[in-house]
Amino acid sequence: MSCRYSLSHFFFTILVPILLMAGALVWGVFDIYTNGSAPLNTLILIAMPFMLFVSIIGINNPAKVIINEEGITLSFGWVKHSYKWNQVISVRVKDYAYIGKFYFSIDGPNRFFGGRYWISSSMSNSQQLKATLLGLAEVKQGQDVECNL
Q1: Averaged over 75-98, what is the pLDDT?
Q2: Are the CB atoms for 145 and 124 separated by under 8 Å?
């Protein structure tokens, strides 16, 4: 199963916020260079690089999800997070139907920035993806499945 966003949804909900963060960072650097240090600029210089790094490397909003018999792969551009089913420790799923998204986390080996993902209902096959993850969460021992369908 393969899930992906339409080009317009990808552009407006994933790419535009990253571009706005990058723009705020450039503005903060430029403003410090021209006007000197100010508390807002200092906050931007501290927060924006971290937020950009986590947004891109952590891919909390993946653009594409591929599930097969070996595992699950989530990707955003050149960054990919892959989990093999036999290495997955636990899966948690929370449905936020009132905002049209669901959240899931995968606990696997060596995943510091990844493992927490948001999927919008506008992604192709998102309901099938949610059902697959809920089934996996129920199979794992001691899992709490938090979903209001």
Answers
A1: 86
A2: no
Question: 1-149 adopts what CATH topology?
Answer: PH-domain like (2.30.29)
Please list, in sequence order, all residues whose beta carbon lies within 8 angstroms of the beta carbon of residue 129, skipping any fewer than 6 positions away: 1, 3, 65, 67, 119, 123
Q: What is the pTM assigned to this prediction? A: 0.73
- Domain ranges within the chain, ordered by starting residue: 1-149
Where do the DSSP E strands lie in the chain?
Answer: 2-4, 64-67, 71-76, 79-84, 90-96, 101-107, 116-120
For Cα atoms 55, 74, 25, give the angle at the middle one, nearest 5 degrees: 15
pLDDT digits (tens, 9 = 90+) for 12-41: 877 888 899 999 999 999 998 888 888 888
